[in-house]
User: Fold this.
Amino acid sequence: MYQRDYILRMIEQITTAIATISGLRKEQKQQQAFDLLEELLNRHFRLNSKLLTSLSERDIIGILQKDGVVESEKVLILAAMLKEEGDLYESLGEQDQAYLRHLKGLQLGLAASENNVETSALDYHADIQALIDRLRTYELPPQMKARLFVYYEKAGQYDQAENLLYELLPLNPEQMREIGIRFYENLLLKSPEEREAGGLPGEEVEEGLTDWLQKTAGVESV
Assistant:
C-alpha cells in the first residue's frame, strides 16, 4: 500500500511538472525547462539526461525493477519525460537530439505496454500516440515496427496494425504470412462493434484476409 501511494504521488508530481515544462517551452524558456527536467530525473530516478539517453532500453528496464518485477508506471513516466525533452530539442531545431529522445521514449512506452501495465493514473495510450506522432516523418527500425504492430493489435487499432503488416511483409515473408493470417482470423472472432471501432468493419476484414492470402500466395510457410 505504501509503495502504491508513493507511485501515485510521484505520478501526480511529475505530471504537474511536465505541464510546467511544456508551458516554459511555449514561452521560449527552454533552459528553465531543461533544468526542471534534470531536477526531476535526479530526484525521482537518480539519473540525468545524458545518462538516460546513453542507456539501452534493457538497462533502463533493469534499473526500474523491484524484486524482479518491472515497475511499468515508472517506465511510462520516463517515457513521458523523454517525450517532453525531445519536444524541447525540437523547438530549438535540434532534430537529431529530438529523434533520439522520442525514439527512446517510444521504446519505453511499448515496453510498459508489453508488461501489461494497468493503471488509472496514467493515460499511457495517449503518451504512446504522442510519441508515434513525433516520429511519423522518420523511417522506424524494423524491430520497432514489429513492436508497434503488436501494440496496435492489442490496443484495438486494427487498421494501423494492418498497415504495418504490409510494411513488414518484405522483411520476412514467411513469418509475416502466418502472422497476417492469424491477425485476420482473430479479427473474424471479434464482435462487429469491436472491428468497427478498430477501423476494420466485418467485410473489410474478410476482404483483407482474401487479399493477404493472394498477395502471399507461393510464400512457403515456416
In short: The chain has a mean pLDDT of 91. The chain is about 75% helix and 0% strand.
